[in-house]
Amino acid sequence: NAGVMQNPRHLVRRRGQEARLRCSPMKGHSHVYWYRQLPEEGLKFMVYLQKENIIDESGMPKERFSAEFPKEGPSILRIQQVVRGDSAAYFCASSPRIRDTEAFFGQGTRLTVV
Amino acid sequence: QKEVEQNSGPLSVPEGAIASLNCTYSDRGSQSFFWYRQYSGKSPELIMFIYSNGDKEDGRFTAQLNKASQYVSLLIRDSQPSDSATYLCAVNIQGGKLIFGQGTELSVKP
Description:
The complex is a heterodimer. By secondary structure, chain A is mostly beta strands. Chain A has strands at 5-7, 10-13, 19-24, 31-37, 43-50, 53-56, 65-68, 75-79, 88-95, 104-105, 109-113. In chain A, the strands form two sheets. In chain A, strands 2, 4, 5, 6, 9, 10 and 11 form a seven-stranded mixed β-sheet that branches. In chain A, strand 4 (31-37) and strand 5 form a beta hairpin. Chain B is built from no helices and eleven strands. The radius of gyration of chain B is 13 Å and the shape is globular. The A-B interface holds A 31, 33, 35, 41-45, 48, 55-56, 59, 91, 93, 95, 98-108 and B 31-32, 34, 36, 42-46, 49, 51, 88, 90, 92, 95-103.
């Protein structure tokens, strides 16, 4: 049973470009969460999605960031017009249900904005 | 007050000793509690989860939960140098999202 798969593992973008981060949850998991870890900081929740629905986006910056989890295919975290401050590790986690269950993390995408 | 608080450390223990990691949380409605280990440059790895008051043991690891005191701890017995990492406490407050503490850096000296 493959774990949570994220790609790319490393992504370099110039300021102003778009970054697209992909996450395929574990088999049987329908809940996907995105977290961001800035250098020397803790993990911060960004968004929680189920298939075709955004359940909680309270941690998403109001501009330039969006997320989706389509009926088919991976979840996508999209960052438009990236700035240096977006440089961070972005982790995706998945779980099989909402309560009393552990979430498993992917290997992360390390975004560097130059 | 932060929602989930941990001492940042570093916590240094000799090999073979017991390492004790502590975490407090502010929301009394918190329902489930998790400990993750994160090596430098790697992703968080789940070690333990606990939902009920009391102790839960898994190998060298014991998680302790006291909801009245809003306190969660992780004990690592017979600490090994390979246990050197940052330990993240996480709390499920509402829905499925986790709120993480800042993490405690543990260093196990040979």
